[in-house]
Amino acid sequence: MDIVEKEQSERDARWLDNQKELGQKGESIVKKFLKERYQASIIVEPDYKGYDFSVKLPNREFVVEVKTTKGNDNRFFISRNELQCAEKMCDLYYIYYIVLEKSKCKLYVINNPIYTLKIDREILYENLVNNEMIQAQIEGLIVTVDSVQLEKFYATEITLF
């Protein structure tokens, strides 16, 4: 590994660490949003499930993986397990993507990222196997969503307290 690759690897590791803290904040926001807006019954799931919440509404059930970023950083990490779960669950799998700003956040609802974001599965699984930038025990992919594509998924703005 040369110096440039090592620096990139260290930046990616720091970015992933920051994402964990942001992720917890995003999960709290989404949980509150689903309960208040839809009176949903929410079960917090363990990490190995491939999603954060099981959501039950009166007429349907689905699962939610929460991804959170700050400002204009339109990228998030998605693990191999999350991708496999999304592929298996098809239209029942959602990413609730939170973009935090100072006193508010934007919530984007993305139905099954593999199909909706048109991720090439062959390239995806090749990257999952060969990606050395990601920490050794974590296999996954950093997904970048351009702002034009992201606007197709805009759901709502939430005021933070």
Please, could you describe this protein's structure?
- The protein has 161 residues and is an alpha+beta fold.
- Helix content is 40%, strand content 32%.
- The chain is built from five helices and eight strands.
- The protein has helices at 3-38, 80-89, 113-116, 121-130, 147-151; strands at residues 41-44, 53-57, 60-70, 75-79, 93-100, 104-111, 140-144, 154-159.
- A six-stranded mixed β-sheet has the order 1-2-3-5-6-8, sandwiched between helices. A two-stranded antiparallel ribbon has the order 4-7.
- A hairpin with an 8-residue loop joins strand 1 and strand 2 (53-57).
- The longest helix is centred in the N-terminal third of the chain and has 36 residues, at 3-38.
- It is globular, with a radius of gyration of 16 Å.
- 20% of the residues are buried.
- Mean pLDDT is 78; it is low at 131-138.
Give the tags.
alpha+beta, 6-stranded mixed β-sheet, 32% strand, two-stranded antiparallel sheet, 161 residues
**Most strands sheet:** 6 strands, mixed
SS class: alpha+beta
- Report low-confidence residues grouped into runs of 5 or more: 131-138
- Indicate the proportion of strand residues: 25-35%
What share of the residues lie within helices? 40-55%
Mean pLDDT: 78
- Helix tally equals 5
What is the C-alpha radius of gyration, as a whole number of Å?
A: 16 Å
How many angstroms separate the termini?
A: 45 Å
Compute the number of strand runs: 8
* String of helices and strands: HEEEEHEEHHEHE
State the shape.
Answer: globular
Q: Output the strand order for the largest sheet.
A: 1-2-3-5-6-8
